[in-house]
Write a structure and sequence with these properties.
By secondary structure, the chain is of the alpha/beta class. The protein has one domain: STAS domain (Transcription Regulator spoIIAA, 2-Layer Sandwich), CATH 3.30.750.24. It is built from three helices and five strands. Strands 1-2-3-4-5 form a five-stranded mixed beta sheet.
Length: 97
C-alpha cells in the first residue's frame, strides 16, 4: 500500500493505493498521526484502493473520530463500497463518487 499526502492549509488529502490489510493499515495510522492538529478536514482518495480488510476499516473509523466527522471518502471502487456497506459503516461516513 502507498499513501500520497497533500496538505493545503487546514485541509488534507491522503491518496491510498493498493491493499489496506492487517499489515498495511498501520501506514494509515502513521499518516494520520503525522497530519497534526491544524488539519480540520480530511479526504481519503480511494481511487487506487483495491482491497480493504477489517483492519483497514478500523483505521478509517479512527480517522473519522480523529477528524470529528470531517472526513470524506472519494473515488471509492464498487468492491470497497460493497465492503463498507456490508459492515454498516457506509451509513456513518461521508462518501462521494
Amino acid at each position: 500500500m502507498t499513501i500520497e499526502k497533500t496538505v493545503n492549509g487546514n485541509e488534507a488529502t491522503l491518496k491510498i493505493d493498493g491493499w489496506m490489510d492487517t499489515q498495511a493499515a498501520p501506514m494509515l495510522e502513521q499518516a494520520l498521526t503525522e497530519l497534526g492538529a491544524e488539519v480540520k478536514h480530511l479526504s481519503l482518495d480511494l481511487s487506487g484502493l483495491e482491497y480493504i480488510s477489517s483492519a483497514g476499516i478500523r483505521q478509517i473509523v479512527a480517522a473519522h473520530k480523529q477528524m470529528g466527522g470531517e472526513l470524506t471518502l472519494r473515488n471509492v471502487s464498487v468492491e470497497v463500497q460493497d465492503v463498507l456497506t456490508m459492515t454498516g459503516i457506509a451509513k456513518k461516513l461521508h462518501i462521494e463518487p
